[in-house]
Design brief:
elongated, 11 helices, membrane, 6-stranded antiparallel sheet
């Protein structure tokens, strides 16, 4: 049993601004581990950037500093020599490449759908600079939404690691095996594309099949981040496997014209799929929020209040000042008002005008007397004299609090006054009451 099922190997030079998003993305789609070959002159800056993924008993990233610039094949062979035994499947992606798998739950689900294959190829979809003159700050996935039409002939893959331990791959003839290993190996590697085709030439894809590829799995290649980034690619070095970067040099007019044509082609269409995916991930930020978020406008803070009585434990000197503490905006689990023991004690708030009320949050206290507040009734009124029934809670369970979550009532009513009554004979005390809504007549 291998330590990991699916892993990524990556070579990174001058990629600090983009590495955290890239690592997080591959973790989000189910890869178990990343082997990161830092090709910077000094590794410390990149290492510090990804410390959260390196520390701990089971780090997500294995960090290797490879000092010789541009020897991409040798970095990959170092992985195959030293770490092949740790992972069942492996992919070789660059920091500007994001595998998108819309047809699958995660990468484990993906490989399970190709039982006939040792290697599944992913076609490139090339993204352009989106008109950026300089690299914009922030997320790659959010900043780049323009791409070339169709799919590109270049491929990446996920492959059974054992199939790559081939003598030819370890020879000079193995150069480029990270795009498609079949033509670089002596042994047979059963390669299919994401449509289960053994003929993996992009030229044999119909228009319908190209569309199916995009809805199944592909690699979004954010190759050009800005015009200035082209110069950055030259500056970072053209040694070893980076020698191809000289094609972005604008010093010759012919190359400049070709570059302009490429930029037009690479920005021809829109694709927001990974941008939307990234936004959806960020929306989970509020899944656990204490106190819970309510979308509307709070209308109860510091409004005049009243209650049925006071007691020795009241904070205010009279019923109004004591009751008003329940809308002071401070939620801390402590009693803000405290009636005397009586039959059906009540508390109410005057919102100062008619409102369309949408949500009511009732916070009990945290301390053991919280069980006093179990069954409650809400009534509402437009004039403070004639009250109508709103709802009753009669489950005999304590009302929730800051620690357990407040009692949340979603409603649709029009009122100026809201009254809460504790059903039965007892003391009535709460931490806070929040009421959300909009003024009547508001657009």
């Amino acid at each position: 049993m291998k330590r990991y099922n699916c892993s990524v190997v990556v070579c990174a030079r001058w990629e600090k601004p983009y590495i955290l998003e890239w690592i997080t993305y591959y973790k989000s789609i189910g890869y178990d581990h990343i082997y990161l070959y830092c090709n910077d002159d000094s590794p410390e800056e990149l290492y510090r950037e990804i410390l959260p993924f390196i520390v701990g008993r089971d780090p997500f990233v294995t960090f290797i500093h490879f000092r010789v610039q541009g020897f991409q094949q040798q970095m990959y062979l170092h992985f195959l020599t030293n770490y092949h035994h740790e992972t069942e499947w492996v992919s070789f992606f660059d920091v500007d490449e994001f595998l998108t798998i819309p047809a699958f739950r995660d990468v484990d689900d993906l490989v399970a759908h190709y039982p006939e294959a040792d290697c599944i190829l992913f076609y490139w979809i090339v993204f352009g600079h989106n008109g950026h003159e300089t690299n914009p700050p922030g997320s790659v996935l959010e900043n780049y939404r323009r791409r070339a039409t169709g799919v590109n002939e270049y491929t990446k893959y996920i492959c059974r690691t054992a199939c790559l331990l081939d003598d030819r791959i370890f020879s000079p003839e193995g150069f480029g095996f990270w795009h498609n290993p079949a033509s670089h190996a002596y042994g047979e590697i059963r390669v299919v594309d994401v449509l289960h085709r053994r003929d993996t030439s992009v030229n044999t894809l119909s228009a319908r099949e190209m569309e199916l590829v995009e809805h199944t799995a592909s690699v979004h290649h954010y190759m050009i981040k800005s015009r200035d980034y082209l110069k950055h690619r030259i500056r970072r070095g053209t040694g070893g496997a980076f020698s191809g970067q000289v094609i972005w040099d604008e010093t010759e007019q012919g190359r400049k014209d070709a570059l302009e044509d490429s930029l037009r082609r690479f920005n021809a269409a829109e694709n927001t799929s990974l941008c939307n995916y990234w936004h959806d991930m960020a929306r989970s930020a509020g899944d656990i929020t204490v106190p819970p978020m309510v979308a509307g406008r709070i209308i109860s803070v510091n409004r005049p209040c009243e209650q049925s009585s006071t007691s020795a434990w009241s904070i205010g000197d009279d019923t109004r000042s004591d009751a008003g503490n329940a809308v002071n905006g401070v939620i801390n689990g402590l009693a803000k008002f405290h009636t005397d023991i009586e039959e059906n004690p009540w508390w109410q708030v005057d919102l100062g005008g008619l409102y369309r009320i949408e949500d009511i949050l009732i916070y009990n206290i945290i301390a053991p007397p919280r069980q006093r507040c179990r069954n409650i009734r809400m009534e509402y009124s437009g004039d403070g004299k004639n009250f109508r029934f709103g709802f009753e809670k009669m489950d005999d369970c304590p009302v929730g609090n800051l620690a357990t979550g407040p009692y949340h009532v979603r409603t649709s009513l029009t009122a100026r006054f809201i009254r809460l009554t504790l059903i039965g004979r007892d003391f009535f005390h709460l931490d806070q009451v929040e009421i959300y809504g909009e003024p009547c007549g508001a657009a």
